[in-house]
């Protein structure tokens, strides 16, 4: 199954419906909805053009690896823009993304789950980095909010002689639960409540449903591992930065939502 340019244009009616509902209810989101749709269209067309070049048989796989490196850097910068209140988030986010990507790609390609090629490397890396960025931003924001709201409790623990990491542990645990819960709930609901994007796309493209299910399972496990890895790195790394060397809690402004 393929979609032509006319079909894509007709699908903009759905964007108009969303913008119209926002206008009707006075939400003030019409421009944001239209801008998001247009931006997504331009970005996807740009990526599609680049992928056409990367997927040519004569194109070296090193160009695909370079694209992955660029995605990692761009995601770290984007994380800073989405969570400006999180101190020094870029190096932490970049470390989290690199670890999650390296672990996932090592399992998928090292164990032969997928063959290593530009057609598999770029989309899979995009899935990892995209979901890891969402989880990382959520974890960073929640850490700042939690340590700001519970400052008195943490300082009381410090005053009782607890080391900074012991005093922070219950709150770090709570942040990790909050950051991972959405992905866990999504994973549990997959299949019975909704059909996820990868599986739907494969079925619409004519793939065997069982094959589509197997691919979707790999994708779900991939996303769950990426979210777990990145949130853990962010929570542990940030919890260390929120204390001075002499175990005092630094002052923080709440992260912008």
Describe, in plain words, how this protein is organized in 3D:
Helices cover 76% and strands 0% of the residues. With 257 residues, the chain is mainly alpha-helical. Helix 4 (61-82) packs parallel to helix 6 (118-149), helix 6 packs across helix 8 (164-189) and helix 6 (118-149) crosses helix 10 (209-241). The mean pLDDT is 87.
Describe the secondary-structure layout:
Layout: H1 5-10, H2 12-24, H3 30-54, H4 61-82, H5 89-110, H6 118-149, H7 151-159, H8 164-189, H9 197-204, H10 209-241
Mean pLDDT: 87
Largest sheet: none
Query: What's the shape?
Result: globular
Strand % is under 5%
Oligomeric form: single chain
The sequence of SSEs as H and E is HHHHHHHHHH
Flag low-confidence runs.
none
Taking the alpha carbons of the first and last residues, their distance comes to 40 Å
Key features of this structure:
257 residues; mainly alpha; 76% helix; globular
Short description, anyone?
The chain is mainly α and 257 residues long. Helix content is 76%, strand content 0%.
